[in-house]
């Protein structure tokens, strides 16, 4: 099983995986209170990405990832993620309020 | 597989977390689904209608499985409640403290170098 070390890489790759195949990609969370371990898995039945942790701060990041997936799945894979987290792994167009930004 | 409405699902999820405190795991799976069979999907797409997708959420504690499906309208509300439940229950995870990390890395260094000199610990 592929355990990814970097959180950001895990997020980017899982969103990519989902956007490539939204019908078969699923996101699984396993939590064991007795061991204090949290494991995240994203798979499209061909490729599998996993992330495990025992840190409370990673749980906070996981919540953000939950939001990302909820939005992607409920609204559609083409939804713009900037409104959720400010992260846009696929497109790099800052379409937010332009405060003195010259393009 | 029990399909529930949003709020009963959240209540059941809470009780699952509480039951699994001493031993056991809780799995939560998120998947996009339109909850329609292939035939229905084909009919809809040929008729020119858009298929409404929902987010299917399943939770299990290895004894019981519950599920619910969330649409685009409910997903924000569900997201908020779900986040609250997770925050309330994931208390067994370690809180990262710099002091602990420093101590653990110093302890590792001591073991690897096996010198008798003691390193001065910095107070943060």
TrEMBL record, chain A:
The keyword Ribonucleoprotein applies. Residues 6-66 form the SRP9 domain. Keywords: Cytoplasm, Ribonucleoprotein, RNA-binding, Signal recognition particle. GO terms for molecular function: 7S RNA binding. GO terms for biological process: negative regulation of translational elongation; SRP-dependent cotranslational protein targeting to membrane. It comes from the Eukaryota. One of its GO terms (cellular component) is cytosol. Its main location: cytoplasm. Residues 81-103 are annotated as: Disordered. The keyword RNA-binding applies. It is found in: Cytoplasm. Belongs to the SRP9 family. Component of the signal recognition particle (SRP) complex, a ribonucleoprotein complex that mediates the cotranslational targeting of secretory and membrane proteins to the endoplasmic reticulum (ER). SRP9 together with SRP14 and the Alu portion of the SRP RNA, constitutes the elongation arrest domain of SRP. The complex of SRP9 and SRP14 is required for SRP RNA binding. This is Signal recognition particle 9 kDa protein. It comes from Brassica carinata (Ethiopian mustard).
Automatic annotation (TrEMBL), chain B:
It is found in: Cytoplasm. It comes from the Eukaryota. One of its GO terms (molecular function) is 7S RNA binding. GO terms for cellular component: signal recognition particle, endoplasmic reticulum targeting. Keywords: Cytoplasm, Ribonucleoprotein, RNA-binding, Signal recognition particle. GO terms for biological process: SRP-dependent cotranslational protein targeting to membrane. The keyword RNA-binding applies. Heterodimer with SRP9; binds RNA as heterodimer. Component of a signal recognition particle (SRP) complex that consists of a 7SL RNA molecule of 300 nucleotides and six protein subunits: SRP72, SRP68, SRP54, SRP19, SRP14 and SRP9. Component of the signal recognition particle (SRP) complex, a ribonucleoprotein complex that mediates the cotranslational targeting of secretory and membrane proteins to the endoplasmic reticulum (ER). SRP9 together with SRP14 and the Alu portion of the SRP RNA, constitutes the elongation arrest domain of SRP. The complex of SRP9 and SRP14 is required for SRP RNA binding. This is Signal recognition particle 14 kDa protein. It comes from Brassica campestris.
């Amino acid at each position: 099983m592929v355990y990814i070390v970097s959180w950001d890489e895990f997020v980017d790759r899982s969103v990519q995986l989902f956007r490539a195949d939204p019908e078969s990609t699923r996101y699984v969370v396993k939590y064991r209170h007795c061991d204090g371990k949290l494991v995240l898995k994203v798979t499209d039945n061909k490729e599998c990405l996993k992330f495990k942790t025992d840190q409370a701060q990673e749980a906070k990041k996981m919540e953000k990832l939950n939001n990302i997936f909820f939005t992607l799945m409920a609204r559609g894979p083409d939804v713009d993620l900037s409104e959720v987290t400010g992260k846009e792994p696929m497109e790099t167009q800052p379409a937010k309020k332009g405060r003195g930004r010259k393009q | 597989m029990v399909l529930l409405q949003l709020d009963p699902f959240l209540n059941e999820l809470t009780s699952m977390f509480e039951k699994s405190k001493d031993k056991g795991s809780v799995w939560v799976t998120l998947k996009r689904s339109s909850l329609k069979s292939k035939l229905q999907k084909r009919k809809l797409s040929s008729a020119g209608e858009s298929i409404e997708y929902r987010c299917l959420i399943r939770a299990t504690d290895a004894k019981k499985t519950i599920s619910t499906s969330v649409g685009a309208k409910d997903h924000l509300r569900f997201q908020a409640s779900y986040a609250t439940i997770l925050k309330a229950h994931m208390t067994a995870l370690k809180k990262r403290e710099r002091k602990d990390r420093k101590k653990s890395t110093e302890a590792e260094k001591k073991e690897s170098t096996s010198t008798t000199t003691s390193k001065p610990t910095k107070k943060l």
